[in-house]
Amino acid sequence: MGSIYSGFLSNNGYLFITNDIFGITEDEGAIVKLNNLCGALIVTARRDILIRMRNLLDRCLSNLTDMGEGLSINLARIIVDSFKREFQKEPNFKENPLPFLMLLVGYTTKQPSCLEHIFIRNRVIEIIEKNVTKEYVTDFEIQTPVPAKNLFYGHSELIQFLFQQLPAEGLNLETMKLFAYFSMTETQKIDGAIFPDVRMAAISKDNGFEWIKDEEIDRLSSMAKSVEIKLSKGFTMLS
Fold it and tell me: Closest Cα partner for 79 from 18, 114, 120, 21?
């Protein structure tokens, strides 16, 4: 699996970045907008599972009209209940499990509002042998909300290492966008098997949930090249 999933807490918001993308539109990837103050990162073992999961989740979200804004345990439960109903409508659903992690991050509905994180997992808990087929029993786990934190899944070792070099007091959201893009693209250079795409989204109190558009990605790409050149010159002077 050549996927990278990361989420970064800045001092004025939260940033999602992934390379697990299967189409050109914003709803064809591992980042999900749940409402104006809450997003999610979906972690799967294979891209075909992500595609199934997104299609099913999108059906769930289109049927939900009273989720409210922001992050809450009630929102997580509503999504899970809807997901169970939709999943059981699929043909042969017992023979085709859909294991995944979904990490909800957003501003809380309580006051004063703050960024929190809810962990949802759907996993196989039992396998039943039936002649030549197998049936899978799955179950959801929902962890209670905790303060938002940085998330690293997939091929994220270099990203984690670079993140540890950042100032302890953190970066603002705009600077974090450059760091996230730079660390993602540097990771992609290490191994040709790592997916080459980049998709980003951010949440802030001022602007809510917003996708990072292609024009801004291009701007970050130019800035990242400048950073790389400066780093290369610095290492050359030290050698």
Answer: 120
Tell me the mean pLDDT in the region 58-76: 89
Tell me the C-alpha distance between 9 and 114, whole Å.
12
pTM for the model: 0.91
CB crowding 16-53: b at 16 or more within 10 Å, else e: bbbbbbeeeeeeebbbbbbbebbbbbbbbeebebbebb
Q: How many domains does the chain have?
A: 1
Q: What is the residue-wise DSSP string for 48-107? A: HHHHHHHHHHHHHHHH-----SSB-HHHHHHHHHHHHHHHTTSTTGGGS---EEEEEEEE
Domain with 36 in it: what CATH number? 3.60.20.10
Give the HSE-up count for residue 168: Cα atoms under 13 Å, Cβ half-sphere.
0
Residue range of the domain that includes 219: 4-238
| Mean pLDDT for the chain overall | 90
- H/E stretch holding 200: strand 199-204
**Each residue's pLDDT tens digit, 72-99:** 999 999 999 999 999 999 989 999 999 9
Whether the pLDDT of residue 134 is over 50: the answer is: yes
Contact 46, 1 (CB under 8 A): yes
pLDDT in tens, 205-214: 999 999 999 9
Residue ranges of the alpha helices (H) in the chain?
47-63, 73-87, 157-164, 173-190, 214-238
